[in-house]
Amino acid sequence: MKYILLVFAFFVLFGSPVTGSDTLTIEKHPSIGIGIKLISERSGDYQIRDINFQVLYGGIQFLKYFKSSRSRFESGLYLNTKVKEFTFAYDGPDLFISLYRMENPVNYNFYYLTLPVNYRLETKLFYLSAGLTFDYLIHIYPESSEIITDSLENFGNDRLFYLGYNLNLGINKTISKKFDIFMESRVAVTISTDKKDGGFIMDGGNIATSHINYGFAVGSTYKFGK
Q1: Closest CA to 151 of 110, 106, 192
Q2: What is the extent of the structural domain holding 176?
Q3: pTM for the full model?
Q4: Is the pLDDT of residue 20 over 50?
Q5: In angstroms, rounded to a whole number, what is the distance separating the alpha carbons of residues 224 and 219?
C-alpha cells in the first residue's frame, strides 16, 4: 500500500497544476464518458493466509455527468482477477499412508466479470469514488480436474455471484475538450463467501473480508455531449 501512496503523492506534488481547462472545473460538462482502465493490483485472501500476488487486468469505464455538479455516476465492466493460495495434501499408497503425508501450496487464479456501481465526487485537486461491486465467476485456473489431490481448504462448490465494495482516489487531467487521462489508487474488498455451502456474507463477529485487491490504475476517457 505504501508504493500506491507514494505514486499518488508524486502525482499531486509534481504534476501539472489544475487549470480552467481541466475537467475538474464544473462550468461545462459532457453528458457521458466512455473510457478504458488498466489495473495493477496485489490480490489475496487473508482469511486463508497473509500473502498476496500480483495481478493485471482491465476493462471499460462508464461515467454519467450531472450538469453544474461535481457528482458523477461511475460504472463499467471489467475482466477481474483474484488469486488465492491453497494447500493440497497428498497421501502415499495405502501401505504407506501412515508413513508420510505431503502438503503443497497451489496458487489459484479466479477470473470474474466485475460490475462496479459507484458514486464519484470531484474536487479541484482529486476525485473520490466508492460503491458496490458485483462479481460473476467465469473461470478458475488451474481447473480442479488438473489437480489430483483434495485441498485442505478448498472444499464445496464455488459461488458464481459475489458482492463487495470498492474505494478509489485519483487525479483526472483534461488533454482536450473530448479527451481525459487519469490515474488512481484503489482497493476492492469482497464480503461474500466464496462457497455456496455457507452463508452468503462472511461473518467474523462483524462483516469479514473473503478477498482484498489493492493497487493503482491508469486510463483515458472520451466525453460525449457538450
Answers
A1: 106
A2: 2-224
A3: 0.74
A4: no
A5: 17
